[in-house]
Amino acid sequence: MAVRIVAAMEGMEEAIERLKEGKLVAFPTETVYGLGADARDADAVARIFTTKGRPATNPLIVHVADVAAARDLAGEWTPVADELAAMYWPGAITLVVRKTDAIPAVVTAGGGTVALRVPDHPVALEMLRRSGVPVAAPSANRSEQVSPTTAQHVADSLGQYADDLLILDGGACRVGIESTVVDATGGTPRLLRPGMMHIFHANAGESVPTSGDDTPRSPGQMARHYAPAVPVHVLPAKRLRKDRVAGDGVIQRVVVGQPAPEPSSNVQWLPPDPDGYAAGLYTALRLLDAAGVSRILVEEPPRGPRWDAIHDRLRRAATPKTDVQ
Ligand code: AMP
Ligand code: MG
Predict the structure, then answer these.
(1) Using CA positions, which residue lies closest to atom 10 of ligand 1?
(2) What angle do CA 106, 109, 110 make, to 5 degrees?
(3) Would you say residue 223 lies in a domain?
(4) Are residues 181 and 65 in the same domain?
(5) Do residues 186 and 239 share a domain?
(6) Ligand 1 contact via 215 beta carbon (within 6 Å)
(7) Closest CA to ligand 1's atom 2
(8) Is residue 214 one of the residues assigned to a domain?
(9) Three-class SS of residue 268?
(10) Ligand 1: which residue has its CA nearest to atom 22?
(11) Which domain does 241 fall in, by range?
(12) What spacing in Å lies between the alpha carbon of 1 and ligand 1's midpoint?
């Protein structure tokens, strides 16, 4: 069989073996499921790109067991990186630093910097610690599509495309959307991609100065990403009620203090708080997509720093295919 789902504790030995042999392993993290391979092995990493259909210009995040393993891969471990790692790792924050030669160009889209993270998930940590392998891993879905937050989502996304893939099943991901990405190469941290770690959102939207080739931009930040197959529209509640027609799928927010209404095949309810909302968002998008709705209308969530990452993902999900640059 091309794709196998195995309970994480039963599949751990095999997963570690596979990483050492240059094969692919899908594994749970607290953000989303990753499609991993040995980051030092260019051929293994190339298989990630072909399985996902990911453009070579979109660099990968390298997952490591601890700060020491991260430092080994960093050409320069800055005071900013050191401080953030001490405060937030293991956690849903990715630090971009200068890379060493141990990291092949395919991982970084040819750039001189590498994105590093220690994930806060027992399965991922055990795999990283016991194998000693730094694991390059983007989300375990086809490029542009909604990231997987369960093992079954991975099988649904990649089943037709993977020649040989082991999926470690560690249950549903707690955070539910991708990590916060921070440029830690300079004297002050800069936000490159918002996530549910909200500490840097004051800098959101700030442009990164271009002082030379090595300046980390945020490559791979495609306008359309995290997108279901059908069109997505984010609308204020009133407008949604007015525009809604038969055949539409709807994502609504439960009113604070009220119980969640029963979901139906074309209406999904998400918790009122940002953490709960993020944790359920991708599953809701997938369920509506699978239900065969003609469009997905999303009730616009509140504004504010804690909602930034959610608005970022909804904006990309709602970007029409024709707008992709
Ligand atoms: P994904 O694995 O799909 O969550 O995507 C990883 C994202 O991390 C990329 O799309 C970039 O936005 C970011 N990233 C990875 N490596 C770098 C890097 N060297 N410099 C800046 N951003 C990066
Ligand atoms: Mg992704």
Answers:
(1) 220
(2) 85
(3) no
(4) yes
(5) no
(6) no
(7) 138
(8) no
(9) strand
(10) 218
(11) 232-323
(12) 31
Ligand 2 mean position, distance from CA 64 (Å): 18
Q: Which amino acid is at 228?
A: P
Q: Is this structure's pTM higher than 0.85?
A: yes
pLDDT digit string, tens, across residues 20-45: 999 999 999 999 999 999 999 999 99
Any idea which ligand is nearest the CA of 59?
1
Number of domains in the chain: 2
Measured CA to CA, the distance from residue 271 to residue 257 in angstroms comes to 10
Q: What residues have their beta carbon closer than 5 A to ion ligand 2?
A: 138-139
Residues 274 and 199 placed together within one structural domain of the fold:
no
Coil, helix or strand at residue 54? coil
Q: Of 149, 124, 125, nearest to 139 (Cα)?
A: 149
State the distance from the centre of ligand 1 to the C-alpha of 178, rounded, in angstroms: 10
Q: pLDDT tens digits, residue range 29-88?
A: 999 999 999 999 999 999 999 999 999 999 999 999 999 999 999 999 999 999 999 999
Alpha-helix runs per DSSP H in the chain: 8-20, 42-52, 67-73, 79-88, 105-108, 122-131, 151-158, 237-243, 274-290, 308-317
Which pair of tokens denotes residue 118?
């220690």
Same domain, 176 and 291: no
CATH code for position 58: 3.90.870.10
